[in-house]
Amino acid sequence: MMTRLVAAALFLAALGAPAAELAGVKLDDKTRVGNAELALNGAGLRKRVFFQVYAIGLYLPQKSSSAAAVLEQPGPKRVAIHMLRDVGADAFSEALAEGIRANHSEADAKALEPRIRELAAIMAEIKEAKKGMAIALDWQPAQGTVMLVDGTARGSAIAGEDFYRALLRIWLGDRPVQADLKKALLGE
What we know:
It is a single chain. By secondary structure, this protein is an alpha+beta fold. The chain has a single domain (25-185), classed as Chalcone isomerase (3-Layer(bba) Sandwich). It is 40% helix and 36% strand. It contains six helices and eleven strands. It has helices spanning 2-16, 67-72, 89-102, 106-126, 161-172, 179-185; strands at 18-22, 25-28, 30-33, 36-48, 51-60, 77-83, 87-88, 128-129, 134-140, 144-149, 152-158. It is globular. The chain starts with a helix and ends with a helix.
C-alpha cells in the first residue's frame, strides 16, 4: 500500500513539473490554446554568435519528429518564445521576415509580405522584446495567428494558415534559422 502511495505521489509531482528548463526558463509540458490542450513537442535555445537570444518551445496537438508532419498537422499550435536579452522591435521583426524569406520562393515570400508587415506593426506597438518577456505565436484555426505578450493578446489576428506555416518554417524549414534548434523543436 505504501509503495502505491509513493508511486502516486511521484506521478502527481511529475504532472506539475516543467517539461524543460533552458537558461533558467521553465517550459511546461502542456499548454492550452483555445479549447485544445497542446503538448510540448520540443524546446531549444536561439543563439546568435555567443549570445543566447531566446528559449523557444513548440506545442502541438500531436507530438511529431517530422518537420513536414508538423507543418501539415491540423489544429491549434503554439510557438512560445521567452526572451533572454533585449531585442528591438525592428530587429525582432526583421529576423522573422528573413527566416520566412529564407524558406520560401521569392514569389511566395512576396505574397506573405502584407501579413509580415501586420506582425511587424504589432511588434512596433510593443517597441522592444525585453529580457524576461514571454511571446506566444498561436495558430487558432477560427481566428488566425494570434500574438500574446506575457499572456495578453496584442494586435489583431493575422489571417491564413499559410502564414502560420511560414512562421514555423523559420525554425523548421529547409533553411532553418539554426539547425540544432530545428532538431530540438522536433524533440531530437
